[in-house]
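BUG-257 | component: ligand-complex export | severity: low

The export step for adenosine-5'-diphosphate jobs runs without errors, but we want the raw record kept on the ticket for reference. Input record follows.
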Amino acid sequence: MGKIISIANQKGGVGKTTSAVNLSASLAHMDNRVLVVDTDPQGNATSGVGINKADMDQCIYNVLVEDLPAENVCVATQVKNLDIIPATIQLSGAEIELVSTISREIRLQKALESLKPLYDYIIIDCPPSLGLLTLNALTSADTVLIPVQCEYYALEGLSQLLNTIRLVQKHLNKSLMIEGVLLTMLDARTNLGLQVIEEVKKYFQDKVYQSVIPRNIRLGEAPSHGEPIITYDPKSKGAEVYLELAKEVISHGERVG
Ligand code: ADP
Ligand code: MG
């Protein structure tokens, strides 16, 4: 049975999509079967793995709103072992359209049930909000991975996210756990980044991954080539650290059982 990990933080630009794409590709590179589920109407994870959104006439929207089976919209990527359920701009209507549908918070969970046995990991990239799409992702997930950008105010807004996670645990998904907290975009030249690491570790303690993602030009460039870093520049620091992260995620799963 695959493990479902949602990558969530309602702040935009903290590295959710970069981490969803590159953690997934690294896990796939290590011979795991991986599915990325793009639940952000921006579709950045979709284009980030080289899928042309303009070519898609169906996406996660049709699954969530129209009950299309999820396997009908799964597509293979250029990366071995890595599939994606894409998102297109059509999804931007879903937040509102879902409000009036039955079991609106568990639609993604239901949709992924039949896919779970086919993958080792299902990684869900969340939009930058705590709306119904993120709720669906948290309700489907075994665990949630929280990227935190190494910048001033890093912890701001996290209490809101943790509150939402608690509500989901109480009402929708009792077994949801925090997978880990990932520090992203560290600029090692400044003291600020190191201070933020200290602060986040004080707060989240052993939930914080040893792997810290540095600010890396190649990581920023890769999406415009529609490639994860592991194929775009396998020798880069970014590729190295996301592989390290994948190892931590795998060993964490083994520890928990
Ligand atoms: P989110 O999904 O949380 O909105 P993204 O992953 O899209 O955040 O990252 C925001 C921007 O920063 C993107 O342009 C991305 O390419 C860039 N970026 C993300 N992580 C890094 C990094 N470690 N180094 C350099 N650029 C990065
Ligand atoms: Mg994103």
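Assignee comment: Attached the raw record above. Residues 237-256 form the longest helix (20 residues).
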